[in-house]
Design brief:
- This protein has 314 residues and is mainly α.
- The chain has two domains: 14-58, no CATH class; 77-312, MetI-like (MetI-like fold).
- The protein has 14 helices and no strands.
- It has helices at residues 3-9, 16-58, 77-83, 86-117, 124-136, 139-149, 155-161, 177-201, 206-214, 219-230, 232-247, 251-256, 268-278, 282-312.
Length: 314
């Protein structure tokens, strides 16, 4: 190759002006990205990072919501007091029982509804709307509605009376109060998880069902060998979201029972809010919140473990 041809094919050197222009464009793009992230960053720092930091600090002090005396560092005294408190253990047991019952039942009911409405037939959109309607209704409104239904002369006892059954005072009896909250909570939230199950069902190829049908598989066999394996990732997500929501139980308790009777419906979150705002013991409430944070962290680690286990099995 001649020197003239080599000079012709060689790339032209980039001029200093072009490099400067490219650098300015990259700098402006970076500045624009930072400006777009700034509102979200401010909100995250203000309402997430700072509250978490304050919780860690206040949990080791005797701070009160309204007090003329400044907060003092008291070490782990709040945690010692908390673990010696019978109400805390009762609240923790109630929370665990609520989660243990709600997680499998609510996920199963939601899956059943999703399978029912995962068909192409006239009027199916109406049923989807009806099942999802409680989700978009305020939990306060739902709690007040069910509180009236649970009255001794309410709708539920009136229906039971038609079958000759004398219904109890659901929310005033320690034996039935938590069960009443469980039933209401399952009814209110199962529509949300029904939609998630439905989205998972619609990602399963129809050819798999056709092949299973040709092989002579019945409906239950198709569900066990086609539907459920295709919903494993969805199931993990639903399991974790329902568990976190169950451990965060507060509104129903605050509206319907106030933790009673005899702390039979008190939960960890309700105890923290009542301690911090009604009793104005901010430091003690922060310690309760910190324990709740550890519980949520354990649930998150469980999610990571389940996801890792699934990926390792592939």
């Amino acid at each position: 190759m001649s020197a003239t041809a080599a000079a012709t094919t060689a790339p032209a050197p980039t001029s200093p002006t072009a490099r400067t222009s490219s650098h300015n464009v990259d700098k402006r793009s970076g500045s624009t990205a930072l400006l777009m992230l700034l509102p979200a960053g401010v909100l995250m720092v203000t309402f997430l990072i700072i509250p978490i930091g304050l919780t860690f600090v206040l949990a080791f002090t005797n701070a009160r919501l309204i007090s003329p005396e400044p907060a003092k560092f008291i070490g782990v005294a709040n945690f010692v007091r908390l673990f010696e408190n019978d109400t805390f253990w009762k609240s923790l047991i109630n929370t665990v029982v609520f989660a243990v019952v709600v997680v499998p039942v609510q996920s199963a009911v939601a899956l059943g509804l999703a399978v029912l409405i995962n068909t192409k037939m006239r009027g199916v959109n109406f049923f989807r709307t009806v099942y999802f309607l409680p989700v978009v209704t305020s939990m306060v409104v739902v709690s007040m509605l069910w509180m009236f239904m649970y009255q001794p002369n309410g709708l539920i006892n009136a229906l039971l009376a038609k079958f000759g059954i004398l219904g109890p005072d659901w929310l005033s009896d320690p034996k039935t109060a938590l069960f009443a909250l469980i039933v209401m909570s399952i009814w209110q939230a199962c529509g949300f998880h029904m939609v998630i199950w439905l989205s998972g069902l619609q990602t399963i190829p129809g050819e798999l069902y056709e092949a299973a049908s040709l092989d002579g598989a019945g409906r239950w066999q198709q569900f066990a060998h086609v539907t459920w394996p295709g919903l494993r990732q969805t199931a993990i997500f639903i399991l974790i979201t329902i568990t976190i929501a169950a451990f965060s139980l507060f509104t129903q308790v605050n509206i319907m029972t106030q933790g009673g009777p005899l702390d039979s419906t008190s939960t960890v979150v309700f105890m923290a809010v009542r301690t911090g705002f009604q009793q104005q013991q901010t430091g003690y409430a922060a310690a309760i919140s910190l324990v709740f944070f550890v519980i949520v962290l354990a649930v998150s680690l469980l999610q990571r473990y389940l996801t890792r286990d699934k990926e390792a099995g592939r």
